Amino acid sequence: MSALSGIRSIMEDIALAATDTSGDTWLNLSPGNPAAIPQVTDTWRRLYEEAVASGFAEFSGRYGPSRGSDVLVDAIVRYFNARYGWGIGPQNVLVGAGCQMLAFMATTVFTGPGDDGPRRLVLPSVPDYTGYQGLSLDAGGIVGVEPGVEFQDGRFFRYTFDLEAVRAQSSVGMMLLSSPGNPTGRTLLRDDLSGLMEIAEERDIPLVLDHAYGDPFPGVAQGAVDPPLHPNVINCFTFSKAGLPGERLGFAIGPRDAIDAMLSFTANSHLHAPQLIQATAALALNTGAIDTLTTEAIRPYYRDKRRTAEKLLHDLLPDALDWRLHSTDGGMFCWLWIDHAWFSDLVLYEALKRKKVFVVPGRHFFVEPFASPFLAEHATRCVRLSLSPDETVIAEGIARLAEALEEMRGAK
Ligand code: PLP
Fold first, then answer.
1. CA geometry: angle at 91 spanning 86 and 97, to 5°?
2. What is the homologous superfamily of the domain 6-37+292-410 according to CATH?
3. Where is the Aminotransferase class I/classII large domain (predicted)?
4. Distance from Cα 81 to the centre of ligand 1, integer Å
């Protein structure tokens, strides 16, 4: 927690590139930032202005409830009950400063030293979101479970959950995963979800599901299973990927006792999340604006970008190269596996930097120690590309990636 982890260390490189005076244009294919889609930006600006006009003094001039502003908590309750037929109340909801913060609070509450020894955070299938790696206050407090690998038609592959390996973990305090996944775009299948909920129930631990890219918003995945209402599941949602990453706003929905514990953490650590943006988000839920953005703007945008990127990869990457792409259900990334002994994600990262391109080295999405020699090797043979940049940046970035790979292959 007190050291830079994974991807955060490359932020410095990107900051440095921003001050480059050579006149060259850097192509950044690494961002987790959502794209600035004009319809999305315009809608949020309009709603924000409405919130300012109607309640600046009320929201910004006063402290508010730690659970979240009444307007937003009520809006969340109404929205989810109507959409999923749930019967939740305010006691099941906690508004927080983004999914990252909610995941940190849950990890701190449910893992660490316990009455019966250490309780660890288990990521049931790595690779998963690099931001999970810094969540634990205990060195060695996080375990990443090795997935299975399924080879699919053409250049595609898919990781599968190894539920037996998850079940075999000891000293578990909580499980956490993103679905659709960052970096893979994979969504949980119904059977995997049932299996994980069964394990959580047997152990009486929380299963935290991070829906940052999922339904109901930004909804950039096909066939995602509905968020489950279950006594052991804490569902985390965020407004970041729906266009508000800078505002730091998310919320958790779960069983009352778990939400209560996280509510106390909120009150003790930072009182509550910022309120003007909560009022803005409430307007988006109550008016249905968030659904319009999801279906009309965000989902088609990433679907089209993915199609373009897949075609470019197929057209431009050398045929002789053993490369594979994780098949996607959605998400905002492409996850590439380059399966050669001469390949290293860090060597590629440096080679691309020389070509003024940033990508994210794959190893940052895995957790050490590795469960097997295969996983240790595999973690160095992957790379993540973002679908958020403009199409011209993606096209030129993939062209330079192809060039760099050809050069690495030639130098082997
Ligand atoms: N969860 C996942 C899977 C993410 O990819 C990200 C950001 O990249 C986050 C959480 C962070 O979300 P927030 O901005 O709500 O803290």
1. 100
2. Aspartate Aminotransferase, domain 1 (3.90.1150.10)
3. 61-400
4. 24
The CATH class of the 41-287 domain is alpha beta
238 Cβ below 6 A of ligand 1: yes
ipTM above 0.90, yes or no: yes
> Atom 12 in ligand 1: which residue has the minimum CA distance?
99
The Cα 134–Cα 96 span in angstroms is 18
Report pLDDT digits (tens) over 175-195: 999 999 999 999 999 999 999
Please give the distance, rounded to the nearest whole angstrom, from the Cα atom of residue 403 to the centre of ligand 1.
31
pLDDT of residue 21: 75
Residue 218 CB–ligand 1 contact under 6 Å: no
Ligand 1: which of 11, 99, 176, 244 to mutate, most ligand atoms within 8 Å of CB?
Answer: 99
* Ligand 1 pocket: which of 5, 100, 135, 384 to mutate (most atoms within 8 A of CB): 100
